[in-house]
Amino acid sequence: MQLLYEEAKHRVDALSEAISEMDDRIQGIVRFNVLMLGLFVPIVSLFQEAESLGGSPLVRLPMIAGFASMVASTVIGVSAYLKRGTAGGVDAETLAGALDFDVTGDELKAELVRTYRISAAREEELLERTARRFRASLLVLVAGLGFFLVAATTL
Fold first, then answer.
1. What is the count of structural domains for the chain?
2. 86 with 99: CB under 8 angstroms?
3. pLDDT for the residue numbered 9
4. How far is CA 91 from CA 16, 77, 119, in A?
5. Cβ(9)–Cβ(46) under 8 Å?
6. What is the CA radius of gyration of the chain?
7. What is the DSSP string of 17-69?
8. pLDDT of res. 108
9. How confident is the model over 37-90, as pLDDT tens digits?
10. Three-state DSSP class for residue 93
11. CB 69 within 8 A of CB 140
12. What pLDDT shows up at residue 150?
């Protein structure tokens, strides 16, 4: 029972660490997006000036698409981070039950293993959802940078 308990606890701890690492990556994308949006806003004004001087209106379409993609990537990244929640550890009901009743060490470990199993399932689901949002945010970010590159080459 001790080995099963240790393995279950280790699994939940590893999943929690993986989710924290994913959160750090998402924060990096959001920071990068905010930085890029801060840099691209002045560039957009330059494109508008170039257009008023006879520049191609085709420059505006990829610029707008790039800007929208960067904003969308930021929104996806922030929503992934905010929807993370917390799922790991021993639930309050199990702890209260252990305090209210005289349970043996083996009974408590069995209950903790059950709780860790449930927590691991929740953490795995949370990690998968967060990873999907991370991939979506990264894909939209790359698309946005591609649109900006197209706009820059058509100047």
1. 1
2. no
3. 80
4. 15, 29, 9
5. no
6. 24
7. HHHHHHHHHHHHHHHHHHHHHHHHHHHHHHHHHHHHTT--GGGHHHHHHHHHH
8. 73
9. 888 777 667 666 655 645 566 767 888 888 899 889 989 888 887 776 555 555
10. helix
11. yes
12. 86
If DSSP codes are grouped into helix, strand and coil, which group holds residue 86? coil
Q: Which helix (H) or strand (E) holds 122?
A: helix 105-153
Residue 112: give the domain boundaries.
2-153
Q: How far is CA 19 from CA 5, 66, 120, 146, in A?
A: 21, 29, 12, 29
Q: How confident is the model at residue 33 (pLDDT cuts 50, 70, 90)?
A: confident
Decide if 111 contacts 54 (C-beta within 8 A).
Answer: no
Contact 119, 87 (CB under 8 A): yes
Closest CA to 133 of 8, 27, 42, 48: 27
